[in-house]
Amino acid sequence: MPETTLQVTQGCFQILRFPSAKNEKLQAWDAADEYLLQDVAEKLDVNDQPSVLILNDSFGALAVALSAYKPSVVSDSFISQAATRKNLALNHIAIDSVSLFDSLVLPQDKFDFILIKAPKTLAFLEDMLIRLQDNLTLNTQVIVAGMVKNLSASVWQMMVRYIGATRPSKAVKKARLIYAQVAKDRIVPVNPYPVCYPLENSRYQICNHANIFSHKSLDIGTRFFLEHLPQDDKYQQVVDLGCGNGVVGLILSEKNPNAQLHFVDESFMAVASAKANFKQAVTTINASFQVGDALTGFDDKSMDLILCNPPFHQQNTIGGHIALRMFEQSQKVLKPDGELWVIGNRHLGYHVSLKKFFSKVEVLVSNAKFVIIKATNL
Ligand SMILES: C[S@@+](CC[C@H](N)C(=O)[O-])C[C@H]1O[C@@H](n2cnc3c(N)ncnc32)[C@H](O)[C@@H]1O
Q1: Which end of the chain offers a freer environment for a tag, N or C, measured as fewer CB atoms within 10 Å?
Q2: Cβ 264 under 6 angstroms from ligand 1
């Protein structure tokens, strides 16, 4: 069983991962969260009422432990926000102690402290550092926390470029903090995000916010999926599950103009990109766009086709557990004759996982790297 009690200078808190899993093996915070909390405990005084912004908290450990300071918390993750709410409630802390912002609309205030948990995607950090410029004063203390392995040279360079001179903490339990001093003369370039590229073999322009999977160009697995998407009038209700920028649903819609598309992703930036890309390309068809956790909220036996290029990470953790949940939920949400189409790297062995939930699992097509699998209950 993982540790669920976070003991830090600010107090003792119960912090769980979300969504809850039966045999959860992973902890909801890491040594970098503990280090950051210990570091700021000496600097934050409630009597001074410091304004605190937290960026990219994983499951709410930072927000819960610092709730006395009424922090603003910015995240691109629906799951992180849901976890933060759950963990506040679990610790009997009023939900409104924390102001949650999604990554698309940032708070307007100036902050005394900006505490950043290093994100997996560098582009997301870059976008945030550019967009947080108006929240800085020359006295703002900007601290990045991360496991040493996640603090690449590019993270340091970005901090220097967009904030100012940096200073490292010593490493503790393989975690480190980066202190950045806000420079008066910093010159911040125009934000390059969203980035756009023409989608090959189509007339579409695809634009991606910074935190999108493969935001610079079409992913090779996605390309293989696009080449083999099905065409049939029987597909009336279709989900693009983990839609990213929505290219999979977009091309499916082109091949099946009578299908009603539902785009879902847990990233606010992904759903915003998918919506903009679809609306710009397809003006005649209605589609739904939902920021959410997999298929939670979808009716049982309601969909004809679910298309999924599953995620293999949650925050900085690698694992197939999200894919498994997506498969399990798909089985419930599909009509009895519905189909789940999955693309994956050969080595991920999705066909084995799919057999836990579906009676028929067939490899439709494969190449040296990828397989496309159809799972049904017929
Ligand atoms: C491998 S990417 C695929 C993106 C896009 N469909 C493509 O093929 O280019 C997986 C996507 O799943 C999303 N995701 C991760 N966890 C999720 C969850 N619990 N619910 C919904 N989407 C999730 C990620 O944000 C990411 O956009």
Answers
A1: N
A2: yes
Token code pair at residue 308: 């999924």
- CATH number for 11: 3.40.50.150
> Amino acid letter at 15?
I
| Cα–ligand 1 centroid distance for 40 (angstroms) | 33
Q: How many domains does the chain have?
A: 2
User: Is 186 contained in some domain?
Assistant: no
Which is it for strands 5-8 and 260-265: parallel, antiparallel or unpaired? unpaired
Q: Where does a domain end: 181, 211, 228?
A: 181
Q: Do residues 177 and 210 both lie within one domain? A: no
Q: Does ligand 1 have an atom closer than 6 angstroms to the CB of 265?
A: yes
Distance 11 CA to ligand 1 centre (A): 35
CB 294 less than 6 A from any atom of ligand 1: yes
**22 CA to centre of ligand 1 in angstroms:** 22
Name the closest-CA residue to atom 25, ligand 1. Answer: 267
Report the pLDDT value the prediction gives residue 23, as an integer from 0 to 100: 82
Q: Are residues 115 and 206 in the same domain?
A: no
Classify residue 271 as exposed, middle or buried by CB count within 10 Å of its CB (0-12, 13-18, 19+).
buried
Task: Specify the pLDDT at position 98.
Answer: 98
> 171-223, pLDDT tens digit by residue?
999 999 999 999 999 999 999 999 999 999 999 999 999 999 999 999 999 99
Q: If 0-12 CB within 10 Å is exposed, 13-18 middle and 19+ buried, where does residue 210 land?
A: buried
Tell me the best of 204, 216, 265 to mutate to test the pocket of ligand 1, counting ligand atoms within 8 Å of each CB and taking the most.
265
The Cα–Cα gap between 31 and 146 comes to 8
For ligand 1, is residue 339 a contact (CB within 6 Å)? Answer: no
Among 131, 152, 181, the domain-final residue is: 181
Residue numbers of the domain that contains 19:
5-181
